[in-house]
Design a protein that fits this description.
Order of helices and strands: HEEHEEEHHEHHEEHEEHHEE
Strand content: 15-25%
Number of helices: 9
CATH class of the largest domain: Alpha Beta
Shape: rod-shaped
Radius of gyration: 53 Å
CATH architecture of the largest domain: 2-Layer Sandwich
Number of domains: 2
Largest sheet: 5 strands, antiparallel
Length: 394
């Protein structure tokens, strides 16, 4: 009760000078608290009986939740603010608010345990603020350090990946070279087998025939040898880079020349051959005659091998109006292919023949694509195969 100057101290046996000294000592302790912004002391009637801001002394504060709670609960009520609050009461602070301040209502009890007054203290926790600032600096420093470490790790990882990819690329180049060499070797074997078979057939017929037939078969052997030499030259031309200098190719004369090379095999296999000449305007296409000859020879050779017991071979040229192309269709009545075989027919080294190499159709596909053409197959098991060679019109 000594804090309130209005109290009758005589009946408590306390002198006015002693009470004034005690009050002054208490107020000095409040004023000298670290980080003090403002200190107020409220009497039981909610009137400010002392304040660091003397202009507030004598004012009565109503409706303050923190103040009422401190009087009612006998416990300290505190509220923290992370930034300045637009409160009229805060305008009386002796200095400007910074980032963080705390408002506390501390109940002051008498000898009977009743709340005689409440001290409201506004203060800035400097130590806490410094710790928070140091925490921010530490967090950002650790973040920057982690970013630098992560960057160095990623740089090392990229360097290792670059070295590894370089080594793998070198191995891939070597493997590709070996694959190309193997493919070229297999292609040579594949191309030689057909002329050799024709020469063997002609030689066998020459042994069993008269002088005139022997001359004819000897002529066929010479033709097949010339075909073999031309094929080797074509293979060398195929291995050179693409120049895109397309030539005009007469499909009719090319088909007739190609079929003349297979007359011996067609006769021996009892295969009938029919060629339907090109309609008007479809005979001339773009390509390279030697390569087109090789592609067509591969298709015809496959058709003949698919009919070992005889059959029918038909060739015809059709117009593909949608793409303005000429399509050479080669149909046979051979054994045909299953859907699974049809999906893999253009893969290198895939073959359905016991002694085949599996390079004929893949080589044909590469030849057709070399000058902007295309190849497609349609086949059913036991019903034959239809091969379509698509050419750009000249």
């Amino acid at each position: 009760m000594t804090l309130d100057e209005r109290a009758e101290l005589d009946r408590f046996g306390i002198g006015s000078q002693a009470a004034a000294g005690a009050r002054q000592q208490f107020y000095d302790q409040l004023r000298l608290l670290p980080g003090m912004l403002e200190a107020d002391v409220f009497a039981q009637d909610r009137k400010i009986i002392w304040s660091t801001n003397r202009s507030l002394v004598g004012q009565t504060v109503d409706g303050n939740d923190g103040l009422e709670k401190a009087f009612a609960s006998h416990v300290t009520v505190s509220t923290s603010y992370s930034r300045p609050v637009n409160d009229p009461e805060n305008q009386w602070f002796t200095r400007k608010l910074e980032k963080l301040h705390v408002e506390s209502y501390v109940p002051i009890t008498d000898e009977r345990g009743d709340v005689a007054a409440v001290a409201r203290i506004h203060k800035e926790p400097d130590n806490l603020q410094q710790m928070i600032d140091r925490g921010y600096v530490l967090v950002w420093s650790c973040t920057a350090y982690a970013v630098v470490i992560l960057y160095l790790v990623l740089l090392w990882f990229i360097h290792r990946v670059h070295i590894t990819l370089g080594a793998q690329q070198q191995r891939l180049v070597e493997a590709e070279a070996l694959c190309a060499f193997g493919e070229m070797s297999a292609a040579v074997v594949h191309g030689i087998r057909s002329p050799l078979a024709c020469m063997r057939s002609s030689a066998e017929l020459a042994l069993d025939g008269d002088l005139e037939s022997s001359r004819k078969n000897a002529t066929d052997i010479v033709v097949q040898i010339d075909r073999l030499g031309a094929w080797v030259r074509d293979l060398l031309a195929f291995s050179r880079p693409v120049t895109r200098q397309d030539q005009q190719v007469d499909l009719d004369s090319l088909v007739e020349q190609c079929l003349s090379h297979f007359l011996g095999q067609l006769e021996k296999s009892r295969i009938t051959c029919e060629f339907e000449n090109s309609p008007s305007g479809l005979s001339l296409v773009l390509g390279e005659r030697r390569l087109v000859m090789q592609a067509l020879a591969n298709v015809v050779a496959n058709a003949i091998e698919a009919m070992p017991n005889g059959g029918a071979l038909r060739l015809a040229v059709r117009r593909e109006n949608r793409l303005r192309r000429a399509v050479l269709v080669v149909s046979d009545s051979g054994c045909g292919m299953s859907p699974t075989e049809l999906q893999q027919v253009f893969k290198p080294y895939f073959t359905t023949k016991p002694e085949g190499l599996g390079l004929g159709m893949s080589l044909t596909k590469r030849i057709m694509e070399r000058f902007g053409g295309a190849i497609s197959l349609c086949s059913r098991k036991g019903e034959g195969t239809r091969t379509s060679l698509s050419f750009r019109l000249a």
